[in-house]
Specification:
Helix content: 40-55%
CATH class of the largest domain: Alpha Beta
Number of helices: 7
Largest sheet: 4 strands, mixed
Oligomer: single chain
Number of domains: 2
Structural class: alpha+beta
Number of strands: 4
Bound molecules: FE2/S2 (inorganic) cluster
């Protein structure tokens, strides 16, 4: 048994008997390996007695789950309606330019800071009331 197989087996045991355990398991696998790849989907499907298609359907539905690991820091930028109304679309081009290939800028739809947008998140840290300079600074400091 590989280290990955062993770790996924442990994650499955951690969630054994819990209702609706697929999403928490996927989050744990993503946190452990930085992705939920095809091998992981297969092991999870076997462990939960689901079809591979069932697991893949959930993995591919949620943007948080990635099929391969990406070691770059991620800056999530909210582009939902309230942040749009507060100007996020006018600052996103500068953000993407500042990110280059070093930082992954991803789009999310609401970070719960609607009245203080534009908003972004890096890991557990939220940033609000961003203008172009502020968002570029967030991106430059992302590790
Ligand atoms: S719409 Fe951007 S934080 Fe809610």
């Amino acid at each position: 048994m590989s280290i990955k197989e062993q770790r996924i087996a442990e994650i499955l045991v951690d969630h054994q008997g819990r209702e609706g355990s697929l999403l928490p398991i996927l989050h744990d696998v993503q946190a452990e390996f930085g992705c939920v790849d095809a091998d992981s989907e297969k092991l999870i499907a076997q462990g939960l007695n689901l079809s591979r298609a069932d697991v893949h359907g959930v993995v591919s539905f949620y943007h948080d789950f990635r099929p391969s690991a990406d070691p770059r820091p991620e800056v999530q930028v909210c582009r939902a309606e309230a942040c749009k109304a507060r100007g996020v679309e006018a600052i996103i081009a500068d953000a993407e330019k500042a990110a280059g290939e070093r930082v992954r800028v991803s789009t999310v739809y609401c970070l719960g800071l609607c009245s203080a947008g534009p908003a972004a998140r890096v890991g557990d840290r939220l940033h609000a009331r961003l203008d172009s300079k502020g968002l570029v600074e967030v991106i430059e400091n992302a590790r």
